[in-house]
Amino acid sequence: METQEKEFYAPIIRTYNNNLSKRWRIEWEEPIRNGILTKRLVKYGFVNKGKTCEERLRFANKLIEQLKLKKKAENQRAPKKIKENILSKTLRLNHINWRKATARAYKTVTQNFTDFLGDLDPALINETTIQDYIFHLSESKASFIR
Questions:
Q1: Considering Cα of 32, then 36, then 39, then 44, what sign does the dihedral take?
Q2: H or E stretch including 37?
Q3: Which helix (H) or strand (E) holds 104?
Q4: pTM of the prediction?
Q5: Distance between terminal CA atoms of the chain?
């Protein structure tokens, strides 16, 4: 089962109990490297230009909207990840534990199965699909023998 990585964590307004003598800020976290670790980011912007709590909250909300729009634009520009099927992922993760010949054989079987599936989403594979693939293999093997 595939899990989705979080792209953007909701920003938080740090108001320090609405204390106007403190510097208010916006904090949020973004994933780094593998999507599990996060990095905390802080932005002050023009939040502290407000003289009242309401003004500061208004500036903070504008800053949050700008951050969300910027992040949305970055996500649209970013290349889409190609969905990796479970067989390819298993090969990638375990090939180091296998002999070279075993890894090559598994890679060949995986490639043949992927070619057989075509555009079918790997999540939709069921028992009937696997039976069709086995029948396909037996038919293609019979054509090589003749």
A1: positive
A2: strand 37-43
A3: helix 100-117
A4: 0.48
A5: 41
Q: Which amino acid is at 44?
A: Y
Q: What is the DSSP string of 9-34?
A: PPPEEE-TTT-TTS--EEEEEEEETT
Q: What is the mean pLDDT of the chain?
A: 80
Share above pLDDT 70 across residues of the chain, in percent, rounded to a whole number: 79
Amino acid at 84: E
Q: What is the mean pLDDT of residues 31-51?
A: 84
> Residue 92's closest CA among 66, 110, 79?
110
135 CB-contact burial (10 Å; exposed 0-12 / middle 13-18 / buried 19+)? exposed
| More confident of the two residues 117 and 2 | 117
